[in-house]
Amino acid sequence: MPARRPIARFETVQAVRGAVASWRARGEGVVLVPTMGALHAGHLALMEEARRRGGRVVASLFVNPTQFGPNEDFSRYPRDVAADVGLLEGAGVDAVYLPTTQAMYGPGFSTSVAVAGLTEGLCGAFRPGHFAGVATVVTKLVNRVGPDVALFGEKDFQQLQVIRRAIRDLDIPVEIGAVPTLREADGLALSSRNRYLGEDERRAAPELHRVLSRVADGLRAGGLAAPLVAQGLADLTAAGFAPVQYLAVCDAGTLRPVAARDPEGRPLRVLAAAYLGRTRLIDNVPAG
Ligand code: AMP
Predict the structure, then answer these.
(1) 156 alpha carbon – ligand 1 mean position (Å)
(2) Which ligand 1 atom sits closest to the C-alpha of 181?
(3) Is the bond leading into 99 cis (omega within 30 degrees of zero)?
């Protein structure tokens, strides 16, 4: 393997901006990949895509407190900065940006990016304030780093659409790129939260992707959403998921529920969120 430059580590906005300015002055583009750390191969697929696009790659590591609800897993969210920085270096990332919570949300912080419509259903219905937290932190990270491109995973499909909307509506000059979901061999979407799963839960977990795929296949075969979703809910419950927060067939752009494929072939997405024990899993697949 060719020798790689050691990864640069920035903790202040001045430092990361300075590096980005010097790369820009040399005509190099910059790709930002925001993460909350606890990195796995799904995150590394984003880094690979960032490198493929050329220029410099900056990954951010920030467990954003404002996107967690009061009873969610903020305090137990897995954190291992040293391991994460090692993985990023191995993936050929140029710089890691590690803002502190105090610097991101200083005294008197009062502003929030609220995206209407797209945030009302699906995860938004169960995680009040979550997407405002996400849209606000992504807006801040993009404004701090100033990349040409920011990359996100389709794994968090509603998040991706919310970010696209906020960036477009607020005229923020950055291209948003999407990377398909990386899965284990049995179909389970890679997630930092998979490490919470016990052995039996891990065995049951791939049923989420199988159910989504069956609904998508049924829609492609001309089936109606309602009976496919009803069967899918029964299958998830039988596999031990409880509660199932939602299983929905939506227009991929608006995320509004649809009854079936339409003759114009608008892209659809099948999305779900469900608990296995204490662990909340989400996943989604395209449906034509
Ligand atoms: P997180 O650290 O969970 O906030 O995720 C950081 C980024 O990685 C987000 O854009 C996620 O959508 C993306 N991501 C997480 N898991 C996967 C996966 N299995 N495949 C592709 N992208 C992913």
Answers:
(1) 7
(2) 20
(3) no
- pTM of the prediction? 0.97
Catalytic residue check, 43: yes
* Closest atom, ligand 1, to C-alpha of 192: 3
Residue 139 Cα to ligand 1 middle (Å): 17
122 dihedral zone (left: phi>0; alpha: psi -120 to 50; beta): left
Measured between alpha carbons, how far is 179 from 49 in angstroms, rounded to an integer? 8
- Give me the amino acid identity at 230: A
Reported as a single tens digit per residue, the pLDDT across 228-261 is 999 999 999 999 999 999 999 999 999 999 999 9
Other beta carbons less than 10 A from residue 73's beta carbon: 15
Amino acid letter, residue 202: R
- Which residue type occupies 244? V
Q: What does the pLDDT read at residue 278?
A: 94
Kindly state if the Cβ of 36 falls inside 6 Å of ligand 1.
Answer: yes
Atom of ligand 1 minimally distant from the CA of 190: 19
Nearest-angstrom CA–CA distance, 216 and 258: 13
Q: Is 182 in the pocket of ligand 1 (CB under 6 A)?
A: yes
Residue type, 158: Q
CA separation (Å) from 188 to 147, 184, 191, 210?
A: 31, 5, 9, 9
